[in-house]
Amino acid sequence: MRMGLCIDISWIPWEIMEYIFDFLSDSDISSAALVSPAWREMSERSFRHRCLKSIPRDILTEIASEQKYGNVDWTSIWFSNLRPDFTSNRSSVVRLHGVARDSHLVSSVCVHKDTLYTGTKDGCIIQENIQGGGINSVRTHDGGVSKLTFLPFYSLLVGSGETELHFYKTSPRLKKLGTDFSIRLGTCKHVSVFGPMFSFRDIMGSLQIFEIFYVGQVVRTTKLFQITQTSEILRWEIWKDKVICLLSTGEICVHSLLLSNASEVYRSECYTAVLYRNPSWIFRDVVFVSSLASRGVLEERPIPHTYVYMSDMWGTRNGTGPWYIGDLEEKSDSAALDLTGDYEEDEFITATSSKSTIDRMMRGFCLQKQFIGCNLNCDVTALCMKRSYLLCGTYSGTLFMFNVDGSSLIHSSTEFERRSNPDWKLRVSDQIIQSVHLSFSDGLVHAVYESGGRLGTITFNTQFTVHRNQPSFK
Question: Quick one: DSSP state of residue 415?
Fold first, then answer.
């Protein structure tokens, strides 16, 4: 009987092994990672290659920013880029909140993976599983909860109370932590996070940007920047090394965190839709502004449906749905690095550039305007973009879902212009959709919506199941 040969493959160059691994399926690579530490590292390299080859840069950056403190897990990132199966949604409103439980009125909603966090107007924060069970709660003792934001980098929940920010450890139960700073919040309670950074507006209207460097019983932070504008900052978002702001004057500006004092590197023309304070949102480096807004529809007692057309600013195409404006990442970099050809070759913004130079170089740049949802038959009142999904809630209580195929590796959002028809839609309420949220867990996509003080969830299956067999070698 012939004895099998034992072949030592340790001598094979890593480049050859990477080439071989490219022919393996996701499940085969996950199984190979169990063999040895070397094969575990090889599987990570293989998934990293697949991420860089297949996932658009903006989506890849978003997923990576949500990694916990430590090394980047490329296996987790690859399996986080889930593709939906819209034909097999688990149609269900699995939980009812607000009026349905102790007269708590929902004031803020946050979703992370399969956990739902609800803030109420009487200062209560409720934590529970989306599929039901595991309910626990805490009180802020600081008025109503205006905003809840999850900070994945440290697995913290950030809540905006009446006067200050509150930080909570989320596992296994909500536990309030102390902070090493004391700054009163302004009238706007919005909070933006990216990696270990978070930002909020203080009582003077300035934008404060902090970075967390340690979490114990107290959240230890370092103040990075303070951004002040002559106009009110209505909304903002941290994205990579930039802060994108919407101003009350209708201007959209970008500040770079790589420059001293977070100097402004981009400023758009005045957009009438923002100036009129229509509903607007920022996700990643994309700004969404409603082109046909109903004034007052998000109030507790909405006034009659009043349309505001923007034909003077937006051209001849009017209709329902949001306008897409972006991408700001490319626009601000092009302006700052002189990629447009409008300046002298040796003239670009640096940390020593004067304010007059920056103003002269940045003024007059118009953002690309795109229109999505031109076939929607109702005003968009809520919107959420995450991964390759765009979820819209409407005045009539209908949900619409768009999904890009990821063919553009530079910026996925540029594909939304072609997506005039939604991939999925469902009437879920006879009232206004006040907010929508997206989360991802174990191969599932969860769509959470708020309507009439109640919450509902719809869960979608994806095209493959996440493999959780992550080996641990010592």
Answer: G
